């Protein structure tokens, strides 16, 4: 009888060919550390791209091919940090903290800032090298390449999963951002998102908005009406013609770029718009304004903010229309939300409804000051055109058909002054992802008081009010752009055991 422990019915493990390794190195200069991240990421993704190309060309590939994301790691043994006013830039407790990194070229300035703060606050070096998290083949291509389509066209006789790592949803959840992450190895995260989670969103942004991630700016406006987008496009193109505006380009879906000073008469637009088209009024340092038409409903609002959050914007705002719930309100009045009744239901699993979504002072003040400046009304008189209060967000557009007495009772108990479908989702996801948020709505109808939104009335209202509303939103963004990032990113958005990266 054979003493061999080999099971003849068990297939032999496939040989794994690894990309050349990059052991952890010590860095005391943030710029050099990020440059090293870029080198590692480019080398490792090139390893996968090259072997995939060999496969498409019919070359025989033996075994599996694997490369790893680079990582940032910091080890500290002290609770001391230098500046307690900061909401980010420090680890919450002594120990080992690390995060996988993707597209360090795209996040270069952001990473330099975060790593500089870490080293300054803890007086320790940064470690850079390979992680143990494989890069999925699909994410080694970041120009929209359709990997599956290429494989199908080449008539491959074996599944891609036999040769390369493919996207794995188990490492793409939001447990870190949700505050439910439990590190099995004791290594605590530095960032709210893993590298595969970021890669997933970078690809989805291109899909939903038809613009590449590098065009997104740090100040983001959301709307649910094309009227606002049309006005944003008009205003953006005017600003590009002003040499002192600070804006250098305007990008529309299809990655169509108009440079400052360019003749705009022969610029073609994308014929078929994506689900949530994005438009970008760009500045050199990324401090321009992005505007996204999210369409109608809380599901879209959650989808797009889930993905834009990985870009770590400085603030996002909702500009849209709402139903006024008070008889004292008139069409065209503004509503500055300072609280939300979350009947949108799309975030219940990620953020329980008992979690309050607080108003952020910096955002609220910027919005109120912007309303005053653009309307020319200030002080006590501003109450004639703007009201601050609670906004209800529902997931049913035909809420008017519900039991009216029951609705009125609920709205009265919550002290609600307006109702829409998206604002609470955008604010709640801002809270969840530590992105400063705000809402300024414009009353377009008063269903409880007999003023329904009808076609003729709505069209006239949009023509009169959209331009002013958008001017207010842009002015508020400019005010917040003049603040320091440390001031805008409020400590009230951070939890007990918080990640170090903004």
UniProtKB/TrEMBL annotation:
Catalytic reactions of this protein: AMP + H2O = D-ribose 5-phosphate + adenine
Chain ranges of the AMP nucleoside phosphorylase N-terminal domain: 32-186
- Has UniProt tagged this entry with the keyword Hydrolase? yes
One Pfam family in the UniProt entry? AMNp_N
The Nucleoside phosphorylase domain covers which part of the protein?
Answer: 283-449
Its keywords, alphabetically, are: Glycosidase, Hydrolase
Record-listed E.C. numbers: 3.2.2.4
Ranges in coiled-coil conformation: none
Which enzyme type, at the first EC level?
Answer: hydrolase
Keyword Membrane appears in the UniProt entry: no
Give the CDD domains listed for this entry.
AMN
Question: Which one of the record's GO molecular function terms can you name?
Answer: AMP nucleosidase activity
The entry sums up its family as follows:
Belongs to the AMP nucleosidase family.
- Stated role: Catalyzes the hydrolysis of the N-glycosidic bond of AMP to form adenine and ribose 5-phosphate. Involved in regulation of AMP concentrations.
Cross-referenced HAMAP family, in alphabetical order?
Answer: AMP_nucleosidase
Q: What is this protein called?
A: AMP nucleosidase
Q: Which organism is it from?
A: Roseibium sediminicola
Could you tell me the gene encoding this protein? amn
